[in-house]
UniProtKB/TrEMBL annotation:
Organism: Phyllobacterium phragmitis
Keyword Transferase: yes
CDD domains cross-referenced by the UniProt entry: NAT_SF
One Pfam match: Acetyltransf_1
Name of protein: N-acetyltransferase domain-containing protein
InterPro entries: Acyl_CoA_acyltransferase, Bact_Acetyltransf, GNAT_dom
Span of domain N-acetyltransferase: 1-152
Keywords, in A-Z order: Acyltransferase, Transferase
Amino acid sequence: MIIRVGEPGDDPLLIKHYLALWESYGTPSEDYSLDAECSIQSFLDEGRWRLGLATFIAEVDGAVAGTSSCQLQVSPYPNVIKPELRKLGYIWHVFVLPEFKRRGLGRALTQAAIDHLRTMGCTTAVLNASDAGEPLYASIGFERGKEMRLKL
């Protein structure tokens, strides 16, 4: 297994994996917006330009097996804490193809993202875990947060 840094030329793969991640949650393809792929591409471009976005590709015997992405987290409220004390990084889009699961790829992709966020001076890494991913992230040291939601 190798983990390499993704390049803009890998964007079609990242887009494909991001949509596959939503499919793995049970989201039917008809629920996607008509411009889903363009929206993802714009998000990648903006993240690279403004938020230090990095992507990682896992390969096993020359075959792509998974991907992950990370960037600075944009707060929905003013951040009044000094960045050296509170600079959040966000890990999103950790995806491993089904045939490559349970081989440590999710852990390696997540660790690559954590390492990148550290180099950016982040003090905390944040992610949203699926039910399937939660044990992995807990084993790395992630703690459950206190987010609450209300369906409207």
